[in-house]
Amino acid sequence: MGDERKNENKKQEQLEPFKVDDAKKHLTTNQGLKVTNDELSLTAGERGPTLMEDFHFREKMTHFDHERIPERVVHARGFAAHGHFETYESMKDITKAGFLQKAGQKTPVFVRFSTVVGFRGSADTVRDVRGFATKFYTEEGNYDLVANNMPVFFIQDGIKFPDVIHALKPEPNNEIPQASSAHDTFWDFVANNQESAHQVMWLMSDRAIPRSFRMMQGFGIHTFRFVNDQGKTHFVKFHWIPKLGVHSLVWDEAQKIAGKNPDFNRQDLYDAIENGDFPEYELGVQVIEEKDEFAFDFDILDPTKIWPEEDVPIQVIGKMTLNKNVDNFFAETEQVAFHPGHVVPGIDFTNDPLLQGRLFSYTDTQLIRLGGPNFHEIPINRPVCPFFNNQRDGYHRQTINKGKVAYHNNSLIANTPMPATEQQGGFAHYQEKVEGRVIRSRSESFNDHFTQPKLFWNSMTPPEQQHIKDAFSFEVGKVKDRNVRQQVVDMFANIEHELAAYIAEKVGVTVPNKHAVDNQKSSQALSQTHFAFSPATRKVGVILANGFSDQEIVEILDQLTASNIQYEIISDHQGKVTGENGTDLMVNHTFTTTNAVLYDAIYAGGGKETNQAFDRSTTEYLEEAFRHYKALGATQEGKEWLKASNIQVGAGVIEEKGAKQFAARFIEAVAAHRHWDRVIN
């Protein structure tokens, strides 16, 4: 028996790859055969045909021909990063989830952000819901918190998910439009499925065009359960809260960025991590005791409803930090597989009908996208804890199982692997008592579709409300069918008559006479102005010409760096820009390789050696940033550029004297993100 084990170990050692220094690596085939040439096919003579025996050509080309896998039906365009989650305090009293038991406990995570509707090649800054999916690699197995940047969803029941996605996607007759909800089939779905009203209000708000993945919230949407080690449960909703606050683009800016840099959000996340500006998000939970399930004027299991924070406060329980970019986009970001059914002991499900549908759908879609049932063995999906079972074979199997037993129960190997008891860490479903007739019906408590959308509207500031009006006007204005436009206006009159009247005027339909739902409540937490404002990691475009004021510019740039503001120097040429006293600064971009919409603020620093083209480009940058309510600053000759743009000092436009005073005022203006009190002609 001992000899057999020695031989087995020897065989295993032979399967391990040889270690080779990078400097000594040679090009090989996938079978390990070193190749002498990777540029020329094997031919019969210099001008003859390629030979079938060229196995290197066949292998290389076959692999290339099969490189693509089906993209995700939804959330196809995504970007991801690694990090860790740290628990602030023990949550043992309400959950036995192992990664939430000790203060300071750290758990590796992988997070994928995404848009929903567009294909992989679409732009980042389209108006859309954003995915915010987190995989926790815990010692008890992988836990996936599959969230969005909006806390509600379009539908209440999973059976309608194919319908809403079919309506959202490009219309099947011509596959137009790409990554957009501004078309007939989507708004026809909305008007005829009015449970979508709440989600649509969020979709028409600034939340649908986030400034950055680093500056958007994440919501688990569904009601889950926390279960403690005594078997007591609480209902829970999950919230990711970015430490940088919640900030958005303006619509005109978002559309222009889609053309100037369609990778804007992914580039922003990648650059921040490379710069050491690691994004941080606090994890908060809303908790309701089981006895209070019916204590509210909404159904807590309805995925089209929020739990207002004034009724159910958020308790912050930990912080996530993203600190490493992926090494390979395909192997990690594209192959990662999330599933809301990937839970650990202490986290369980509820009867939320949309959640129940997702528990089936996610595994089902991975089977075709990732080529079979072994997607859990792909490195990015592998648990960090050991896993054992009697499942075998299938496409892309990587585990080499030993022995002849592949079933349970058994006696040949002492019934191993054996199930774990709950005390040994085994997952035990919460024993909820369920009874009722087998029917296709929904509780009456799910039927109020307009009270919470009105709450959302009431909670918006006047600029946010105007943006919602304009978004509706744009989106519904793109609908060709007048009857659908009328249905949409009639529907949203149930929420706010002022909103419906505004849309009706813009899209050429009749203003309805119906009265909106009676709800005067508001929630401060729903407005983006409720969140923190900070200049940290903001990006400023600094326009300089040769002959700039050395001492002043260097002092101001140092102050920007001290506030952790990122800046790029823009001029009319690459290379260096030289100050009046000989100071050289490296130019990051010319006017043609970047654009004002790619910055949070513009600082016109000046410089004596300009020409008409330089001055014209500068004024265009200033005017663009001004129209998007961004901070503007000007010193020295920059003041003349500002004057030429007909932009007056005030409302985020800074011309303070003295480098120190100017920098302080300008940094304060940058931190404000937008200056909505500005008058735009």
TrEMBL record:
GO cellular component terms, semicolon-separated: cytosol
Catalysed transformations (reactions): 2 H2O2 = O2 + 2 H2O
Keywords in alphabetical order: Heme, Hydrogen peroxide, Iron, Metal-binding, Oxidoreductase, Peroxidase
An example Gene Ontology molecular-function term: heme binding
Entry EC no(s): 1.11.1.6
Sites where the protein binds heme: 72, 112, 161, 358, 362, 369
Pfam annotation, one family: Catalase_C
Crosslink site: 3'-histidyl-3-tyrosine (His-Tyr): 339-362
Gene3D superfamilies xref list: 1.20.1370.20, 3.40.50.880, Catalase core domain (2.40.180.10)
Top-rank taxon: Bacteria
Catalase core domain span: 28-416
GO terms, biological process: hydrogen peroxide catabolic process; response to oxidative stress
Catalytic-site annotation from UniProt: 75, 148
Co-factor(s): heme
UniProt entry tagged with the keyword Metal-binding: yes
Region (Disordered): 1-23
InterPro entries: Catalase, Catalase_AS, Catalase_clade2, Catalase_clade2_helical, Catalase_core, Catalase_haem_BS, Catalase_immune_responsive, Catalase_large_C
Enzyme class: oxidoreductase
PANTHER family for this protein: CATALASE, CATALASE-B
Function: Decomposes hydrogen peroxide into water and oxygen; serves to protect cells from the toxic effects of hydrogen peroxide.
Family affiliation: Belongs to the catalase family. HPII subfamily.
The name this protein goes by in its record: Catalase
Organism of origin: Virgibacillus massiliensis
